[in-house]
Structure formats: C-alpha cells, structure tokens
Amino acid sequence: MTSTLTIRRPDDWHLHLRDGAMLRAVLPETARHFGRAIIMPNLVPPVVTGAQAAAYRDRILAALPEGSDFTPLMTLYLTEDSDPADVEAAHASGLIRAVKLYPAGATTNSASGVTNFDKVRPVLEKMAGIGLPLCVHGEVTDADIDIFDREAVFIDRILDPIRRSTPGLRVVMEHITTSDAVDYARSQGSDLGATITTHHLVINRNHILAGGIKPHYYCLPVAKREEHRLALRAAATSGEARFFLGTDSAPHTDANKLLPCGCAGCFTATNTMSILAQVFEEDSALGRLERFASLNGPAFYGLPPHDSTLTLEKKTPDYPAQISTDDGPVTVFDPGFPLTWRVA
Ligand code: NCD
Ligand code: ZN
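That is the input. Now the predicted structure with N-carbamoyl-L-aspartate docked in place:
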C-alpha cells in the first residue's frame, strides 16, 4: 500500500482571501501548502482597477508569514464600467492573470457584477486579443430559474453565446457543479478550462438539507444531486488537461454562516490536500492527483509548474476544527469521514 506521495507543489486556481483580519488569519492556511493562487476580487468595494489590484496584492504580501514564497495571482472584477485600457495595462505589467465575471446578484459581493453583457463586449474583445483569461461564475440570476438549474441554464443562455461571439477568448468555468458543465467543457477546445472545488467532490445536496440544515455546507453554486457529484469526481480524477483545482475556499465567520440568511461559502484551505488525496485514492487515481492540483492549472494559464514538491503521507492529519480570526472563528470544512492523508 502506498504510504507517501510526492507531487509538484500545488496551486489553487480560485481562492477568496478577503482583507484585514480575515486575510491575516486565512492566508497562512493556503500559503502552507500552495505555491500560487488566483485571488478572487469580490471585496467590498470590489477590486475593479489595476491600481486597486496592486494595492490589494501589497496587502496580501504584507500579510504573508515570514519566509513564505507564496505568490498571489491577481484578478480584476469585471463591471459594466470596466475600462479596456486599464485591463490591458494591468495585464501588460504582469499584475493580473485573469478577469472575473460575476453575473450581478449571483453570489457573495456580486452586486457590482454584470447585468447587460453587451456592455462588457469591448473588454472581452480586448481580453481575447491579448490572451487574458475570463474566469466565470456560471449561474443565471433569474428569479424564475430554479437554483439547482442555474448553472446549466447559464451555459446555454450566456456562456456559449459569449464564447461564440468572442473567438479566441480563453474562459475558465469556475467551480463547476453539474454533469452539464463537465459535458460542455469536454465538448470544447483548449481555450476552455474548468475548475472543480474540493467540497463539490465530497458533498451532494443531501449533505446540506437531509437530517437538519447544515449551513457550513451551503456554498454557491449550491451542491447538486449525487449523479452530478460523481460526474465531477470522474472529471477531476481523469487527469484531463481542462480540469484543475480551484478550491473556492471562501471564509465567513461562524456568526455570518449561522444566520437566518447565512453567507455562502465553504472554507477548505486547511484540509484540501488531505481530502483530495483521499478522494483520488478512493477512485484509484492517486497517480493523477498531480495533474489536477499541480500541472493542468499552470498549463492553462501559461505558467510553469513548480520545481518544488509537496509530500503527502498516510497519517491522520492534525488541524483545528475552526481557525480563529479577530473577527471570530471560521469553521474548517468537515468532509464527514475520517481523513487518512496529511501533508508531511
Ligand atoms: C464565495 C464568497 O463567499 O465570496 N462564496 C461561495 O459560496 N463560493 C463567492 C463565490 O465564489 O461564489
Ligand atoms: Zn469563489
């Protein structure tokens, strides 16, 4: 039986670090295992301009533990007023690696997102021209579309039309949750990638709703039926280049999770690598974990994989159930089964 596994150092291609006290508390959890991460720009107010992204990057670097060589890969939050010239300059200087599209109202801090997709056409055309990827939160927001159908409807109504009308645009379908998204990603060329979170490989909608409501399993896009979880597992463990890890680790204080109208997000930075090793081992795919966590993402983003490595060993991991922050505790995602791999 395999007792250790060494892979290239992993990266996280979708991460929420927040700001201030929360940033200081959660950043070490990611920097401990990951070399780089695509940093989500949904702060309040959002990170819209190159100047705002540069200032946010400086705050992240200042919050890093002594001696850490973690690299934040910055993104801009696309609004209907985003300036194509500012986006181009932020990309040319090496500051940003992607632009994030939130349909207005789709998720946490998405109020400044896009309602009229025609208004962002000049930015998307600029991005296609310079090869800057668009990271997409793929859910429609229409009140008459069932929340469990919002991803599949987005693909048909918004994503596919945008991609057809913007040839050359590189797109990441983020945190996919359905077999519809897996099938669409597989039907397209190498200019389309898809991230998959840790928690969507583990939970289905029963985990949220059966036997009492579990706010810590509520995230967006919401977990779907078991058949969708199995499709995500098959995609992640396939080793196919288009699928890579984006944890969507999204910290909220317990006080904000456990409300009558609680926040969406699962905090998985701390135990993601332990959970992934377990998932890949269960699916007889440990040998493909490196592709999902360490190789496919850099290849999509045109970056080299790390020379350094991460070793996992077959031992019970030791981490707290909650991370303490000056804003209050943040609960670490509970996979619901004992973990048997830990980072050495
Ligand atoms: C994210 C957050 O809290 O910022 N929440 C979540 O449930 N994933 C936003 C997002 O990525 O949708
Ligand atoms: Zn997210």
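The pocket of zinc ion (ligand 2) is lined by residues 14, 16, 40, 248, 250 (CB under 6 Å).
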